[in-house]
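so the lab meeting is tmrw and i was supposed to have these ready like two days ago... anyway. pasting both below. for each one the top line is the aa sequence and the line under it is the structure tokens. i havent really looked at them closely yet so no promises
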Amino acid sequence: MSFSVVQGFTKSLVMTVLSEIGDKTFFAAAILAMRHPRRLVLAGCLAALIVMTIFSALVGWAAPNLISRKWTHHITTLLFFGFGLWSLWDAFHEEGESEELAEVEAKLDSDWKANSGTTKEVGKDDDELKKQRRPILTQFFSPILLKAFSITFFGEWGDKSQLATIGLAADENPFGVVFGGIIGQALCTTAAVMGGKSLASQISEKIVALAGGVLFILFGIQSYLATVES
């Protein structure tokens, strides 16, 4: 395995973990997993994140073919510094309570009430029996999985982590960026689904934002000092 793949993998893995922990999609996965079967939520969220990671890496990989590598390198460097300052700003100006968690929970609550109406929970045993009787293909395309997929996919669209992945793939080996991003997304999403709201509520968004800001600035410095291949 070449050094460029390892470097792209490492940067993408660390960046993804620090960007996704405490993100809206992290909280959404945690809350959805409390209300629906975890395997369906995990499958839907992971599928959306994998698709988004591959798409973002493809866009980043194609960028140097559309404009010169020198310009994509400089743009990527500026993006890293910009995201670093953005994360540090969020760390010092956000309040201590998890506003994002409350916001996501309120939104999902409204959707939940609109969809379920006045229906109350019937026993879990009956639900499990129904799920076991359904064909596997029907479970795979269940409304729960599709809901988890759509919430995660559109939640990530235009997000800082997506733009950072595009910039990283433009400057590093795209295969390493994809593998690192997918593993990072899998770690964060699995933690959110298994840990639930209790884990999500214990995360210090300030510390995560500070760590992410420092990391992006370090990436920017490294990118600034790196030589550009013509």
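ok protien two:
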Amino acid sequence: MQRTCPRRRRVQREPSTVTDGRRSLFHRLPPELMVEIKCRLGFVDRHALATACGTKSRHLMKPRAPWLVVPGGTLDTATLFSVAERCAVAVGAPRAMRGHVVILGSSGAWLVTADATATLRLANPVTGEQAELPAITTIPFVLPLHSGASFCVDVHALEQTQFCAPPEPDEQIWRRIPRGTWTFAAGLMCRSFYRKAVLSASPRPECYAAMLLLHGGSAAFATAEDPVWRLASSHGNVEDAIYHSGFFYTITRSGVVAAWRRDGSAGEFTVRWLVADRVDGPHKYLAAAPDGRVLAVIKEWKESYNQSKWVYK
């Protein structure tokens, strides 16, 4: 007999930053027993138990992938929707998700958010945990103005650090745009300067690696051990990035694919260029196939006699 799942149930809780000092009875249970409990609970009950667990056992209670986070009825709530179980639960949003924020990326149960002050944060809507990522001003070419009300970006210096070789022909178009310094209002940084954030697998505030894609095709790395955004040198403007099997993969506007990995001894990210031939197409994305391959997906606009549409190949 198939167990039904309620469509929606509100879980009342006050989000807070959970520290390792917090203790509960659940963290004393063997991991094998926690897994067994998880398998016997539905989505809503699993979330309710996750709010009561200590940080050592909460990772066992995250929803079964895939699941979605959508805005709630108010600015301080969110709705978690399990695609696998077709259930929804309303939760109190962590402070990093309250108000008018932009979600730049996700991994596991963690989101990367940016708010009107250009602050980047990690947020876990399941457990309520949150933490700040390094400030964008750790990039030497991004300077705060008027007490953080706006930011000045030295685009020329950013570009000189970005390119490790002469750019491809497609990149030359971008380089002909007038150079100098650009000023972004703090509230526009999350929509105009930040493009996408990619997290390593199973991130936590005390152990993560992150890649941030910026306006103009630049990319920067930061880790918990080295909380500074460090620009990556590339063959062109990075159009998309994903994390898969221990590597950050990027594809440039001209179609060059690269794999990035952090060198544990040096603490720096090293790169290996995977595709030398250009991948033609106006829009490019990366995706991980179930068999482990990394695919370059091309989005094109096709016009025919009776219809026009975007196609992927």
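from a quick look at the 2nd one: The longest strand covers residues 294-303. Residues 31-40 form the longest helix (10 residues). will dig more after coffe
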